[in-house]
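[User] Once you have settled down, look closely at the record that follows, and write a paragraph about the fold.
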Amino acid sequence: PHRSSSPPVCECVCVNGRMIHCSGKGLFAKKSIKKGDTIFTERPLVSAQFLWNELYKYKACEYCLRALETAEENARRLSGNPALSLPHAELCCVHPELHQACPQCQVMYCSSECRQAAADQYHKVLCLGPSQDDPNHPINKLKNTWRSMHYPPETSSIMLMAKMVAAVKQGQLAVLNGLFTAALYDDHLSRWFVPEGFCSLFALVGTNGQGIGTSSLSQWVHGCDALELPAQQRAQLDSFIDQLYRDIEKETGDFLNCEGSGLFLLQSSCNHSCIPNAEASFPDNNFLLHLSALSDISPGEEICISYLECCQRDRSRHSRHKILRENYLFICSCPKCVSQMDEPDLTSEEEEEEEEGEAEGETEGDEMEDEMTDV
């Protein structure tokens, strides 16, 4: 079920005023798109917070993954300093007075709208009521087993699949119509619980899920960056933020955000490139995806994202192919990979070992030459 890099016969859809070709095998620009432009914004068909992330008190709206802690609460927890006070606290975008809990299971939402949307789509099936903290409830057993198999850093959640099934049980199949493959779309629900159907659903989530990250602290920092301040105040604020991030790194490490994943109809149509011309971000502190252009995109040009992290894109072609093959089941033929076809089939680790070996050999050779010279 993988994407083709060759442009298929496709339809045009209008997204945010721009005409974009959409086929399920790729997205192609109909008009010129400038670097930095938002190509489209999109809500996921379904999303879920990562289970370890949730367990470690990263508080997020159960529906839209909006961070529920204020920026100051977030900074205090991550830095381990309960007395920390943030300047310009008015820049925090979190509104605790709007938060609402499910009256049965006490799961938290950022607003009444999110609570109602979850109830309408899937939560009536997944609500545990008074059994929310019962480790013997089947759904809690499912969560705990998943955690035991998938330690951080997380890339997906079993609850993404659970919400998909729950949505169908609540009659929401029409909402998910554009997502399901032919193998799943026309079959009975029971098929998903036999090994073949479950594997199909698992593969769908695993190969098309998009990571989501939200942070009230990050939004506060962006707000601070936008402030117009005298030079001395700017230097003091920047110094405060730099020290805060050092304290957080010492206390918490790299796990700063509320994290989860979602299935997006348009975004999942984007093919991979090791030199992408677009990237996804979540600047609204919720699950709303913004796809932005990394470079100018011409009419007819394919809109590509990278399935690799930034640091992975700089690795050898062989290493990149290994990651993509293991996680997404395809071989990349983007321009960068094609241009590196003649490179040796070594992973980046092997290359580093080879370089270290050559360096050691050169050092030994130099020492031998010195000894011979002395003789």
